[in-house]
Specification:
The complex is a heterodimer. Chain A is an alpha/beta fold. Chain A has helices spanning 5-8, 12-33, 35-44, 65-70, 104-120, 139-151, 163-173, 182-194, 216-226, 340-348, 385-403, and strands at 84-89, 99-103, 128-131, 154-157, 177-180, 206-209, 229-236, 241-247, 255-257, 262-267, 281-287, 298-304, 306-307, 319-320, 325-326, 331-333, 336-338, 357-364, 367-375, 408-412, 427-429. In chain A, the strands form five sheets. Chain A has a nine-stranded mixed beta sheet. Chain A has a four-stranded antiparallel beta sheet with strand order 10-11-12-15. In chain A, helix 2 (12-33) crosses helix 3, helix 9 (216-226) packs across helix 10 (340-348) and helix 10 (340-348) packs across helix 11 (385-403). Chain A starts with a helix and ends with a strand. Chain B is α+β, with helices and mostly antiparallel strands. Classes of the chains: A alpha/beta, B alpha+beta.
Chain lengths: 433, 143
């Protein structure tokens, strides 16, 4: 099942021809309209006309999040404000948010890519899509909303929060598809359990989860607790919002990135050199159809790898593997690179351990320390100290065995780790570096 | 012959014990006996109360992790060596004591010790065959 069969199944050579034509056009557009790109192309010694093949992309300079901050708020816009019909922004947890603008055409493109994504996840016209991504400056809510409407599904614009009501609506309205962050889906499952609501009695069939890295084992936990097929979706506001890439329900193995609109590359985050197929590195995306704020070689900070292997679903677009983290989320503990999702994966694998955890990193006597806080629920709890101590030691040992780092596992009371209705906070880094 | 005990997981931070006793007090629960086992990070509070189900419910409602275990209450002669004789008997029969604590009130002329065994049923048989008095839960809750 496809939403736009022609483009989703374009043979590679035809897809690349479309990409090149669109790349050349976007180069002309940013060069003509964005002083930032005029300057950066000049500095790199390239002109729009130099791009004769897709290989030439490698000669172009990167665009970074810092460039976006420096151009705050509208400096990178390539279309006049009269044509901008929507403005979104990233959360901006570290300073000013990064601002993006969409023309009417951009909104149509986004809606189509999101509709394609819904179909890829196994949703269809007639589905009741319960959209619990936040509406607002965050792209999640409205992105999924417009896509669901274009698909012809019935969308319930829940936004995040108000969990009891979410559960009531899912029951009463017969929601069949759930869209939210993976951590919020588990929070809902927990709240439903407390209300005595069994997800097996709901009509949910598919969950489309994104906006934060999550692990394969967390997928298992979600599918088990919510009784649905959990599909990973990827997007970021700088590029578009949700629907840049998504898994297909047939394979659930890598996320198809819509290559007729985005050109993906994987680079070594330290050297900036392009890496080969299957090699893990930072995802770089060039938007080739965007009007409002096209970006050339945007460094996403997300760590993944890419494959062009044909997929069982019939889509010809390349697949990126599940994000293992962000290069800026990556923790370096005593010289070892650690992604929170790796620790999550280990924790979820231990029977009875909830996927609610918090990593506290500190530095004592010039040595990094890692404390892993894990909630103790009834399945884990024992009236005997030794049983609980054995559990702590097991967590410490498995993390040591898998990641090679020494940590302290700390058991905490249930519900004491802060729950999030958006992106979960998994790390507190107290090191003053 | 068995006595129901509830255990509560508590992090080592100030006010948690006060919070638990307040919740129980507000619910009209009377604590008959207690023991607190602690480590540097967390503690386990074990309680014998007059109404196990209500106590469990009110604590769970307030977000505590609570479980229920069966323990054995034994009358011990309140004299020097009283506890020693019972432990001797258990040792002879190779019954392992996981933990134990004393009941706060006396029962007649005897003290009461609460035991947690790895093999509860076997322990009860052994104790009764050796003529120790194993108390019924009902009796204990209402002392």
């Amino acid at each position: 099942m496809f939403f736009n069969e022609e483009y989703e199944t374009l043979p590679r050579s035809a897809l690349e021809a479309v990409q090149l034509k669109r790349l050349q056009s976007v180069m002309e557009r940013v060069h003509a309209n964005v002083p930032f790109y005029q300057a950066s192309f000049e500095k790199a010694g390239v002109k729009p006309g130099d791009v004769k093949s897709l290989e030439d992309l490698q000669a172009l300079p990167f665009t970074t999040k810092q460039d976006m901050r420096d151009s705050y708020p509208y400096g990178l816009f390539a279309a006049p404000m009269e044509e901008i019909v929507r403005i979104h922004a990233s959360s901006g947890t570290t300073g000013k948010p990064t601002v993006v603008g969409y023309t009417a055409k951009d909104i149509r493109t986004w809606a189509e890519l999101m509709a394609r994504s819904f179909v890829s996840a196994g949703a269809h016209k007639g589905d009741i899509i319960h959209n619990a991504y936040g509406y607002g400056l965050f792209t999640g809510g409205l992105g999924a909303h417009y896509g669901a409407e274009l698909l012809g599904a019935s969308v319930i614009p829940m936004s995040g929060g108000n969990t009891k009501k979410q559960i009531m609506i899912m029951q009463d309205f017969g929601s069949t598809v759930l869209t939210c962050t993976p951590s919020y889906s588990l929070f809902m499952a927990e709240a439903a359990h407390e209300e005595g609501v069994d997800f097996r009695d709901l009509k949910l069939r598919v969950g489309i989860f994104g906006a934060e890295p999550w692990s394969e084992s967390m997928r298992g936990e979600i599918e088990d607790k919510l009784n649905l097929a959990a599909i990973d979706i990827y997007g970021l506001s700088e590029i578009m919002g949700p629907g840049v890439a998504i898994e297909c329900i047939q394979a659930k193995n890598g996320l198809h990135i819509w290559e007729d609109h985005f050109i993906p590359e994987i680079i070594d985050p330290d050297t900036g050199q392009r890496l080969g197929e299957g090699e893990r590195g930072e995802l770089v995306i060039t938007t080739i159809t965007k009007q409002g704020i096209p970006l050339i070689r945007y460094r996403t900070r997300d760590i993944t790898s890419i494959t062009y292997e044909p997929c069982v679903c019939g889509r010809t677009h390349a697949r990126i593997t599940r994000m293992s983290g962000r290069s800026d989320d990556m923790l370096i503990i005593r010289g070892v690179n650690v992604f929170p999702s790796q620790i999550e994966s280990i924790l979820v694998g231990i029977e009875g351990v909830e996927p609610h955890y918090l990593l506290i990193v500190d530095r004592r006597d010039n040595l990094d320390t890692l404390e892993v806080q894990v909630e103790v629920d009834e399945r884990l709890f024992s009236d005997e100290i030794k049983v609980l101590q054995k559990l702590s030691r097991r967590i410490e040992k498995e993390i040591k065995d898998m990641l090679g780092i020494t940590c302290t596992a700390k058991l905490v009371e249930p519900k004491t780790i802060q729950r999030s209705e958006g992106k979960a906070k998994r790390v507190i880094d107290n090191r003053k570096l | 012959m068995k006595v129901e005990q509830i255990s509560i997981f508590i992090e080592n931070k100030s006010g948690r014990l006060a919070e638990i006793t307040r919740i129980l007090g507000d619910a009209g629960i009377n604590i008959r006996a207690l023991s607190l086992a602690d480590t540097s990070d967390f503690g386990i509070l074990r309680l014998i109360v007059n109404d196990v189900e209500t106590a469990k419910r009110v604590l769970k409602e307030r977000g505590f992790t609570v479980n229920k275990t069966e323990v054995v209450a034994v009358e011990v002669p309140d004299r020097p060596g009283g506890l020693s004789t019972i432990l001797q008997t258990l040792d002879t029969e190779q019954i392992n004591v996981e933990y134990m604590y004393a009941f706060v009130e006396r029962c007649g002329g005897n003290a009461v010790i609460i035991f947690r065994f790895d093999e509860t049923d076997k322990a009860i048989t052994v104790l009764r065959n050796s003529n120790f008095v194993v108390l019924e839960g009902e009796r204990l809750y209402s002392i």
